[in-house]
Amino acid sequence: MNSIVLAVVVMMGLSLIRVPVVLALILATFVGGLNAGLSIPEIVKLFEGGLGNGATIALSYGLLGAFAVALSRSGITHLLGEKIVSIVGAKGSESNVIFAQMVLYSAFLICASLAETLVPVHIAFIPILVPPLMAVMDMLKLDRRAAACSLTCGLILAYMLFPVGFGAVYQQNVLAKNINLAGEKVNFAIDASSIPFAMLIPALCMFLGLLVAIVISYRKPREYELRAVAAQDDKEPVNRDLKPFQIVISVLAIIVVLGVQLYSGSMILSGLIGFAILSFSGSFKWNEVDDVFVLGLRMMALIGFIMVTAQG
Fold it and tell me: Dihedral angle at the C-alpha atoms of 2, 5, 8, 12, nearest 10 degrees?
C-alpha cells in the first residue's frame, strides 16, 4: 500500500477510536515512514524538519483567537446573540426552532464557501462568527457537530468546485500541476478547466453527507452546559453596557481584520491589528489586555498544535 495512503488511514482509524489528534498524526507519521523503508532516525529528522512550516499557521490561529476573545469581551457578540434570541423567541415553537436551525446551518455553509472563494479569508471568519452564536445554538438545542459539518462542507466544497480564490490555487497550482507532473512519463495531461466538472461528483457526495449529518445523524436536540464561551473568565464579565461608539469600533475592527487579510494575505497581521483596535477602544480595561490575549491563545492552542504537527 502507498505509504501516504496508509498514514492517512492509520490517522483516521486512531481518531475514530478517540486517540488525541496530535498523537494520531505522530503515530501515523511513523507508520507511513516505516512502510516507506525509512529508519526511525530518518523519520524523526524529516518530521522535525517540517514542524517549523506550521509555526506561521499556529501563530495566525493564536492571534485570531485573541481577537475573537477581545471581540467577545467587548460585548458586541453578546448583543448580537440577544438580538437573534429575541427574533427567534426564547420559547419559540418547534417550527420556529427548526427554521432558526436551518438558517444557522445555511449561514455557516454560505460564509465558509465565500471565505474560500469570493472573500478568500480562509478560516479567519470562524473565531468572529461562531463564538457569539454559541449561546444561540445552545438555546436552540442544536448539535454542534452538525454545525461543524456545515462549516467543513462549505470550506471544502467551494474550492473543489469553483476556481476562484483558494479554489484557483487548489485546482490550478496543486491538483492540475501535480496530475500533469505525474503523467509526464505516460504522456498524460489535463486541462485545469476540466477539473470543476470532475470534482462535481465528490462535491455532491459531500453535500449529501452534510444532509445526512443534519437530518439523520445529528438531528436530535442536544443540550450543553450553558456558560459563556471562552471569551471571559469567572472574574471579569462581558461588557453589557455598550455605548454607540464602542459598537462602531467593534464593527470597524471586524471590517479592518477582513480587509487587512484580503490586502496582505496575512492572518497574523490582521489578527494583530484587530486586537490592537479593540484594546485601545475602551471595551475592556487596559490591565486586562494580557488576560484577554492569553485566553485567546488558550482557546486556539489545540488547533495550533494540530496544525504544527500536521506540517511535520
Answer: -120
Which domain-ending residue is among 202, 223, 244?
A: 223
Length of the chain: 312
Give the residue, 118 or 193, on which the prediction is more confident.
193
Residue 227 has pLDDT above 60, yes or no: no
The pLDDT of 99-106, averaged and rounded, is 86
Weakest-pLDDT range from 62-66, 78-82, 170-174, 202-206: 78-82
Tell me the C-alpha distance between 64 and 271, whole Å.
5
Supply angle C-alpha 172, 311, 9, rounded to 5. 85
Residue 50 corresponds to which amino acid?
G
Q: Are residues 198 and 152 in the same domain?
A: yes
Q: Give the residue numbers spanning the domain of 161.
A: 92-223
Instruction: Based on the fold, state whether residues 153 and 199 are members of the same structural domain.
Output: yes
* Exposure string for 142-160, b = 16+ CB within 10 A, e = fewer: bbeebbebbbbbbbbbbbb
Residue 242 belongs to some domain of the structure: no
pLDDT at 87: 63
CA dist., res. 246 & res. 290, Å (int) = 20
Assess if residue 255 is contained within a domain.
Answer: no
Contact 155, 175 (CB under 8 A): no
Domain closes at, from 175, 192, 223? 223
Number of domains comprising the chain = 2
In contact, 136 and 96? CB cutoff 8 Å: no
Q: Which of 75-89, 97-111, 208-222, 279-293 has the lowest mean pLDDT?
A: 75-89
Three-class SS of residue 50?
Answer: helix
Query: Is 243 within the bounds of a domain?
Result: no
